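[Archive record]
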Amino acid sequence: MGSNPTIRRVPEGASMPSRTRKKAPANPDRRTTRSTKSPKRRAAAADAHASLLHELHKKSPFASVSQEAYIALQRTSGILSADFQRLLKPHGLSEATYNVLRILRGALREEGTRTCSEIGEHMVTPVPDVTRLVDRLVDQRLARRARDGNDRRITRVKITRAGLDTLAALDKPVLRAHKEQLGHVSDRDLGQLLILLAKIRRARSQP
């Protein structure tokens, strides 16, 4: 049999020597990130909060962050929408009728026409009465109605040459307006915004 290892006896009343565990060196990048980004984010959130209260001349705080976010979305949408209303008005269009014309132009790459129900499915902002929008475009001779070749009971809508010319005249000004509205925001921030907006829409579309 082998000899027993020597056992070190500790005198009565003496404490056992503690083993000191070496701490891993702190990650300077992580420490810097926490100390610099967190305050910046807090400051940015406080600035956004104060800005919205000022714009709305609101004295009392919002009931919740979700309420504040909803109102901020509505406020921002209204401001951006006003720019396009001014751009479209000289052409006799609203945002909704402009959207319909773009849907009809896109249909030319497929079967060439859309029914009112199909137009409604493609609308950026759903409207209760697509027929009324089509009526307005037909009166302006920017679109026309035609019976379906396979089912005469179905009415289809097609963009006219005048409608195509109107859209062509607006294409560059619309892109320029988008740039003027959001060009000061980085692509990275816009990408993050798109992710958050998609998250909200997906949650609302679930049954």
